[in-house]
């Protein structure tokens, strides 16, 4: 509690309050605009944060991340366009409620559900992250190698594509992470004679290219979309009736815990949590036939789950220094740009950052509730901005942001190459999230591997010496082996059933 009070003292300074508000506003705006997402917007703004204190920059970035979870619901409900991937599920019942004249109630349930879930998740984060950081102090190079392997393998299973495609993306990210000077021998690796590449491939231009430039190229290829009718909502129509409110309380509470613990899993946790919440509520609801036709549970549950998952994703970042999702990977980059190393020692070395960011999320959560309801009309009007103008602005920000990282023209070229690659990968239905995370985790994976082997004199047994690393490797192996085994058993069972029926 003493740490949290110190955090509020940091977060309540006028400068930090202002940037928390800016982050929450930008996050909501980003959530409303389809395609950009928190990753693209955070990548664009990395260069802007150089002149800010570390705590202020991270408070703003955190606001963008969880703010985008809020904003996506607005367009899902009013226009049937998910601003964020995590808001796809909200379209199912949210838009149907709007068509029935209950748009205001759907928006209110989404906003309040997000606020309650975010607050519950923050309380768990407040008590869980410092304890996990204490445990993480026992981690050595073998344990960090094991958790990095575990994270990458879990991610490859949860990225929404085939295992082979995911592993290809992970391999590409690890390969990009090895470019530059070897940290031990000082030998240049994969630089092909380019002196500029000796410093390595920076995360920011890659992220800007894969998400920002690729999005611009994809929009440029598409025909101008037909304008959709935007359902208007009056302020007095925002309150749900007693029945809608009563049916939403249980889903919000359940989704708060479900979403938070889903956020601890590597991968697109916010997206997965919405599907899990929707499936759970549909299974246990007394009104199953209403799902897909405007059930309030189908709006309140998923929206609560994605906000709780966004908060849960901060636990491994703040306590272990490992990002399990692309947005937290950008937060990690922001920390490293400002000379802050996240991980077990963050609580002791930089308590103003650790507790300041957590405290700011309590404040930002309240700001988002205030912003999202009265300013619904303003945010939805952003959709009327012509796409060609919007994409031109994004392209300009990408170029400026990539150059600002190292004042290097090489980074601009890297960004454009990554953008073209990202566009092609989208065409081939490859998810770039495993590549981005592997690029961030790769150097830690390599460092911990080599440090472990140096400590053991080249013996690989060191990775199984600790109970923590053994458990993580067993779990990682189970994650890879279990899906094909389950499929094999299902196939055999189906074959046996069909044979018995034919007899």
UniProtKB/TrEMBL annotation:
The keyword rRNA-binding does not apply. Residues 17-437 form the DUF112 domain. InterPro entries: DUF112_TM. Keywords: Membrane, Transmembrane, Transmembrane helix. Pfam families: TctA. It comes from the Bacteria. The chain crosses the membrane at residues 17-36, 43-66, 105-129, 141-160, 166-184, 252-276, 308-332, 353-383, 389-416, 428-445, 460-482. The keyword Amino-acid biosynthesis does not apply. This is Putative tricarboxylic transport membrane protein.
């Amino acid at each position: 509690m003493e740490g949290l009070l110190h955090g509020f003292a940091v977060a309540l300074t006028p400068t930090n309050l202002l940037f928390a508000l800016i982050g929450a506003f930008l996050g909501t705006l980003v959530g409303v605009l389809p395609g950009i997402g928190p990753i693209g917007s955070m990548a664009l703004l990395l260069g802007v944060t150089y002149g800010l204190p570390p705590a202020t920059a991270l408070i703003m970035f955190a606001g963008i991340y969880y703010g985008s979870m809020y904003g996506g619901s607005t367009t899902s409900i009013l226009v049937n366009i998910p601003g964020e991937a995590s808001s796809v599920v909200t379209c199912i019942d949210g838009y149907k409620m709007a068509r029935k004249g209950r748009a205001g109630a759907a928006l209110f349930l989404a906003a309040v559900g997000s606020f309650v879930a975010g607050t519950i998740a923050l309380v768990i984060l407040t008590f869980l992250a410092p304890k996990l950081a204490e445990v993480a102090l026992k981690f050595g190079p073998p344990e960090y190698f094991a958790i990095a392997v575990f994270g990458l393998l879990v991610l490859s299973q949860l990225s929404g594509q085939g295992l082979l495609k995911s592993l290809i993306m992970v391999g590409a990210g690890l390969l990009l992470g090895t470019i530059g000077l070897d940290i031990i021998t000082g030998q240049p690796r994969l630089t092909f004679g380019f002196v500029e590449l000796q410093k390595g491939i920076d995360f920011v231009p890659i992220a800007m290219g894969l998400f920002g430039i690729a999005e611009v190229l994809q929009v440029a290829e598409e025909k101008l979309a037909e304008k959709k009718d935007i359902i208007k909502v009056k302020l007095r129509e925002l309150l749900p009736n007693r029945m809608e409110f009563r049916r939403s309380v249980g889903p919000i509470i359940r989704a708060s815990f479900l979403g938070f613990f889903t956020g601890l899993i590597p991968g697109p946790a916010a997206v997965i949590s919405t599907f899990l919440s929707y499936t759970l509520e549909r299974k246990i609801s007394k009104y199953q036939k209403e799902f897909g036709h405007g059930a309030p549970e189908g709006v309140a549950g998923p929206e609560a789950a994605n906000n709780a998952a966004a908060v849960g994703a901060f636990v491994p970042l703040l306590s272990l220094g490992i990002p399990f999702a692309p947005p937290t990977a950008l937060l990690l980059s922001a920390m490293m740009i400002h000379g802050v190393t996240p991980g077990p020692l963050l609580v002791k070395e930089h308590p103003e950052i650790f507790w300041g960011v957590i405290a700011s999320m309590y404040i930002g959560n309240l700001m988002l509730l205030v912003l999202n309801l009265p300013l619904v009309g303003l945010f939805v009007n952003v959709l009327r901005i012509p796409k060609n103008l919007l994409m031109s602005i994004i392209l300009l920000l990408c170029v400026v942001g990539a150059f600002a990282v190292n004042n290097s023209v090489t980074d601009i070229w890297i960004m454009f190459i990554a953008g073209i690659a990202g566009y092609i990968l989208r065409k081939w239905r490859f998810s770039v999230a495993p590549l981005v995370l592997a690029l961030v985790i790769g150097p830690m994976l390599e460092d911990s591997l080599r440090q472990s082997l140096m400590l053991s004199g080249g013996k690989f047994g060191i990775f199984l010496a600790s109970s923590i690393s053994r458990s993580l490797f067993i779990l990682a192996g189970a994650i890879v082996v279990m899906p094909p085994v389950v499929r094999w058993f299902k196939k055999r069972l189906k074959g046996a059933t069909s044979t018995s029926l034919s007899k």
